[in-house]
Each structure stands twice: as C-alpha cells, then as structure tokens.
Amino acid sequence: MYSYNNLLLGGVIMSFAAWSAIFMALIGAMSGAIFGTISSRNKSKNTN
To answer: Where, by residue number, does the polypeptide cross the bilayer (predicted)?
Structure first.
C-alpha cells in the first residue's frame, strides 16, 4: 500500500511538472509573439 501511494504521488508530481512545463512554454511563446509584434511595430514607426 505504501509503495502504491508513493507511486501515485510520483505520478501526480510528474503530471504537475509536465503541465507546468507546457504552461511555461505557452506563456513564453505568447510573450515572445507579443514582444515580436511590438518590436516590429516600433521598427515600422521608425522607418515611417
């Protein structure tokens, strides 16, 4: 029973780590896209 609980806890921790990694990747991609669009807009403003 103890080993089963330990395995369950490990699975929960692994799934939480995977979801947090996916969440961080999504946030990074979104922030990168927003920053890229802002920088491109600033460049276009400077050229104009």
So the answer is: 12-35
The Cα-based distances of 46 to 24, 36, 39 in angstroms read 32, 15, 11
Range of the structural domain that residue 30 is part of: 20-48
Rg of the Cα trace of the chain? Answer: 21
Pick 27 or 8 by higher pLDDT.
Answer: 27
Greatest Cα-to-Cα distance within the chain, rounded to the nearest angstrom:
70
Mean pLDDT, the chain, rounded, equals: 87
Tell whether 14 is covered by a domain.
Answer: no
Structural domains in the chain (count): 1
Six-digit token pair at 37? Answer: 């669009």
pTM, two decimal places: 0.55
